[in-house]
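Example record used in the benchmark description.
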Amino acid sequence: MHYNVEKSGYKWVKVERRSQPAFWLYRQVELMFLGQFEHSIDEKGRMTVPHRFRAMLENGIYLMFGLDGNLMLMPSEYFQRFSNKISRMNMADPIARDYMRQFFANTEQVAHDDVWRILIPQNLRQLAHLNSTAVVVGSGKYAEIWSPDLWAAQLKKINDPVASAKKFATLDLADE
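Model output (structure tokens):
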């Protein structure tokens, strides 16, 4: 480091460049599925993907039935990692076999058209109780698609401060 002393007597320190720019964290956050959006589903079962999510889905889209009565919208890379974990489960375990069946039988690779509409297959629309409207919710590494009624019930459950405090107390959310 190199110091300069000016007439005012203040020391000036030469600041060295960091190896990684300070905005790297913002770019990581930009590449997360965040927020919630209401979208219509047309009579053919097509729904427009929120504009904010499109860049993360450019390399492929997988749609699967979730564990809470919703659908999960996953980018190809994340789906591959997730499905590889499931494929490594012990097939001798009946619970693992049931989950594999549920997962692979209720998952579809979907494509978007020029205006970023995806076709939600009929069986997945029925499982998730989707009709003419859907709520698309960011969940970090993937997005969820909910029927408005199920999402309202989910919001009521997760927005109860007393229940949430008890439920989330076991999670390691400490800022390190």
